[in-house]
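Input record (Table S2, row 397):
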Amino acid sequence: MYLKRTAISLDEAKAFIAEAELKPRVITKRVREAHGFVIAEDMRATFPIPYFRRSGYDGYGILSEDDHDFPKSFEMVENVAAGDDFKKSLKPGQCIRIMTGAKVPDDVAKVIMLEVTKKTEDGRVLISESPAKSNISEIGEEIDKDELYLPKGTSLNAGAISVLVAFGVEEIQVYDKPKVAVVATGSELADSAGQNDGKIYNSNGPLLQGLAMENGAIATGEYVLPDQLDETRAMLDKLSRENDLVITTGGVSVGDFDYMAVIAQENDWKFNKLAMRPGSPTTFFIMNESPVVALSGNPSACFTGFWFFAEPLIRRFQGQKTAIKPGKAKVQMAYTKKNEFDRWLNGVLKDGQVSLNGQGQSSELSSLYQANCFFKIAHDSVAEVGQEVIVWQLPGR
Ligand SMILES: Nc1nc2c(c(=O)[nH]1)N[C@H]1C(S)=C(S)[C@@H](COP(=O)(O)OP(=O)(O)OC[C@H]3O[C@@H](n4cnc5c(N)ncnc54)[C@H](O)[C@@H]3O)O[C@H]1N2
Ligand code: MOO
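Output record (molybdate ion complex):
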């Protein structure tokens, strides 16, 4: 549908995304069920770790006054296993057998590794040498009481869950995962008929759902709509009420059956044209208080649009900033096509060198699985081999 549009810069578009009012929800979750959620509170140590003086080795514990003139023979008075709490004091000339992870009695100054000791026939222990280190981890050596060990905004991976459990935490505050509806529009999209007769499979739907999930969202369903204004409007009205974010793909340009910009203009629209490629017709609006990011149907443009405009929203629902890391890299090949707009190509970044992924066309889909960055070719320019360019590195790739 033809509508007059004014192209805005990528920075202006990102400012609209950053300013959109969102309502993140904080919920209580059992730690063991919180994998993949983002923590909504700072976690401080309620006790030090280690909580007790801990033996780092299997061996023999000795007093400091005995720590000289080796080899030396000791009387072994107790066998202390991990989990034991041996409270008696040692006398000079006595030692305890102690295991890795066991609580070291207060008066023991050093644990001598088993490998430099020998049991003698009279039942005593001969220690041949004493190492410089004590082989004891002191109280709070890893984390002091009250120290921040998990900051708010951290994505809970297996390591984060394990440290929470190590502090005996059972429930935590997390950001609820945002619910994201992915809507593919286009009468060319076939459910099962395949690619015949002008039809294609809806490959952008699973692409966007997967990307949403990779960034911590729940994809609430795959919706496919024909290019039909009333049906699209009604579906977006429903989905924007039921979800935190709606991402659409296709029908956003100026074709006779492109209705997204029309629906945007009936709502609180923010932009409908960008001075960049790919994805110049990308449109953003608020419907029923939910943001709607309307991306191009061209698969590569759709991929780029997700990272530039949907990912920051999905992260913000989870109390996070975008996970894309800006940087610089040298281009490995010349890029000679000039464009009136800045062009963000998807690329493969390795060891500070970036190469074009695929052919750099908006319609490409077969190489998207390899992309781990975007790099910028400024408008009206080309890139020579070895030229430094701005890169945005994608997380988890
Ligand atoms: N006269 C003009 N034509 C176009 C312009 C323009 O400014 N003036 N812009 C071009 C640019 S740039 C882009 S990008 C596309 C954007 O088009 P739409 O977002 O409206 O997307 P569609 O026309 O619906 O589809 C484009 C392309 O992508 C395929 N597609 C669509 N949906 C899917 C899907 N779910 N899975 C896989 N592939 C999909 C579709 O079949 C088309 O081939 O407009 C240009 N035209
Ligand atoms: O802006 Mo479109 O995504 O280049 O083809």
